[in-house]
């Protein structure tokens, strides 16, 4: 890329948007023409990964370019120290950017945790609301409720910021959508969409054999763990608890039992909106209904993001600045869409580990290109600094992937990604802590299964476990080959890579050394 005036950067990030549900990734489950445009006119990454598959830690990694043990935002309960450095501060201080952030923040509230480094910001508290959402604004004691649908409102705020910008300076805009996060409250204008059945993933009825214990005990199952509210169903017994599960009493952890077929045939579920009735003959039919209902609602909320990405792209064009503006579309992590029977994320298994990443910059990226190199969310901030023409500050641990955008993969590019999920007080999901690395062929995961004295964690702990997946032979990750004699050398190689990576980033291994 030749030196030219600093580009504007529009960073659009959804919450829990799996790559599979962007049509540019070619899975055919939905149609997202506007998001696809970013790839068609720019570059699509097939191997972008999150360093910790959870909202708050991922957002901290994106802002700081640091791994979570360094920025100290390791779990959903962490908050950011907003006096620390971040990419917006860097662009503002060293490249004269105007900076703004609108939408989901999820890094804490109040004077020491709210956004800093942004000339303008307006964020939803915590997970926020889909309808008539509250926003926290700078210098205001009270949150303000804004009438309307959250995805439209966040986009309005972004466009308004761009309209009022100082045209003599570049801008860095972070547009953080709440959708398609759980609750999946879609806008009625998308209700006619996705009424046809979606193909159920091959691993939907995974029995979790030959795998670490974590897979069987985590509470993320579509069939067991979704609530009336998640599925847009009226709770028969009424009450105010929106977290009530269907068949909660029968299916609850630890003795998950398939509900008695007779109970299923007696069950009548009703759409909470129009009262449509649903009846079932078998527990399997009920599980499939939940999957279809989940996907329908999830994909409809995505359609609204797609409409609004279209609005942003059109606006940039009408303003005549599309050529000078980098547009990114990504998500804070991946998401399970029924694979292994799950919704949600947290694990290093592929669907939740992979982030979608699409980027357009007409002046610097060849249209329609696809990249297969490995990148991570910690690399975003260094890349933005590099593209803005400033040096990457030493506090950032990620690496600029500007060469990849220019179509060149340096020989020294590290084709290895790291993931670490920390145990925290989150009994309602019960996801075990783990860390590991993945290269193009293999994925090594260490489950340390310690209770770490944290409330809600594994009481008393349990034996640590290793997993090794051959991503080429077993892309669905159904077979742990860690103890297979034929993979002995791979285990040694991957363990060394893991240890080297942890040393590079300053993290502390908990596993026994070779
Ligand atoms: C809530 C959701 C979970 C989700 C976490 C974290 N339940 O607890 O499904 O995993 O947030 O999400 S909900 O019923 O309250 O929606 S994250 O995107 O912030 O990491
Ligand atoms: Ca998220």
UniProtKB/TrEMBL annotation:
Q: Ranges for the Sulfatase N-terminal domain?
A: 7-390
Which UniProt keywords are given for this protein, alphabetically ordered? Glycoprotein, Hydrolase, Signal
Q: Which residues form a coiled coil?
A: none
Which is one Pfam family of this protein?
A: Sulfatase
Q: What Gene Ontology molecular function terms does this protein carry?
A: hydrolase activity
Q: Which PROSITE patterns match?
A: SULFATASE_1 (PS00523)
Q: Does the keyword Nucleotide-binding apply?
A: no
Q: SUPFAM superfamilies of this UniProt entry?
A: Alkaline phosphatase-like
Q: Which domain of life is it from?
A: Eukaryota
InterPro entries assigned to the protein according to its UniProt record, in alphabetical order: Alkaline_phosphatase_core_sf, Sulfatase_CS, Sulfatase_N
Q: Which family does it belong to?
A: Belongs to the sulfatase family.
Name under which the protein is recorded: Sulfatase N-terminal domain-containing protein
- Which species does the entry assign this protein to? Thyridium curvatum
């Amino acid at each position: 890329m030749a030196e030219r005036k600093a580009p504007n950067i529009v960073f659009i990030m959804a919450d829990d948007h799996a790559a599979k549900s962007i049509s540019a990734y070619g899975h055919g489950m939905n149609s997202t023409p506007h998001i696809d445009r970013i790839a068609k006119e720019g570059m699509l990454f097939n191997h972008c990964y999150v360093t910790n598959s959870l909202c708050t830690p991922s957002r901290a990694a994106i802002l700081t370019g640091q791994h979570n043990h360094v920025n100290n935002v390791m779990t959903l309960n962490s908050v950011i120290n907003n006096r620390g450095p971040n990419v917006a501060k860097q662009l503002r201080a060293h490249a004269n950017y105007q900076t703004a952030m609108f939408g989901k923040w999820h890094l804490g509230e109040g004077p020491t945790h709210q956004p800093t480094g942004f000339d303008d910001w307006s964020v939803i508290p915590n997970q926020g609301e889909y309808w008539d959402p509250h926003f926290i604004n700078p210098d205001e004691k009270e949150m303000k409720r804004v009438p309307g649908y959250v995805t439209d409102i966040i986009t309005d705020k972004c466009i308004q910021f761009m309209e009022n910008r100082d045209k003599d300076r570049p801008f860095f805009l972070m547009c953080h959508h709440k959708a398609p996060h759980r609750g999946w409250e879609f806008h009625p204008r998308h209700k006619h969409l996705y009424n046809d059945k979606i193909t159920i993933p091959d691993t939907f009825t995974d029995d979790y054999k030959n795998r670490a214990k974590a897979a069987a005990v985590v509470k993320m199952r579509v069939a067991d763990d979704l609530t009336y509210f998640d599925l847009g169903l009226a709770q028969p017994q009424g009450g105010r608890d929106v977290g009530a599960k269907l068949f909660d009493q029968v299916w609850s952890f630890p003795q998950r039992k398939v509900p008695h077929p007779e109970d299923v045939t007696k069950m009548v579920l009703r759409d909470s909106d129009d009262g449509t009735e649903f009846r079932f003959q078998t527990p399997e039919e009920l599980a499939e209904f939940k999957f279809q209902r989940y996907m329908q609602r999830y994909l409809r909320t995505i359609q609204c993001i797609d409409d609004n990405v279209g609005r942003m792209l059109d606006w940039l064009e009408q303003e005549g600045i599309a050529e000078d503006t980098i547009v990114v579309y990504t998500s804070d992590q991946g998401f399970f869409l029924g694979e292994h029977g799950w919704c949600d994320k947290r694990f290093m298994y592929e669907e939740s580990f992979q982030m979608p990443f699409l980027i357009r910059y007409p002046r610097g990226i060849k249209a329609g290109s696809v990249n297969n190199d490995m990148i991570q969310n910690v690399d975003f901030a260094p890349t933005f600094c590099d593209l803005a023409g400033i040096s990457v500050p030493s506090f950032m641990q990620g690496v600029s992937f500007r060469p990849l955008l220019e179509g060149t993969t340096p020989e020294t590019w590290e084709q290895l990604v790291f993931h670490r999920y920390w145990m925290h007080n989150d009994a309602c999901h019960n996801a075990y802590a783990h860390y590991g690395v993945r290269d193009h062929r293999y994925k090594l995961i260490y489950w340390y299964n310690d209770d770490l004295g944290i409330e809600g964690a594994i009481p008393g702990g349990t034996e640590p476990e290793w997993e090794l997946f051959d991503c080429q032979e077993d892309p669905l990750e159904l077979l742990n080959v860690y103890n297979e004699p034929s993979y002995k050398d791979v285990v040694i190689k991957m363990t060394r890579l893991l240890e080297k990576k942890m040393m590079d980033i300053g993290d502390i291994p908990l596993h026994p050394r070779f």
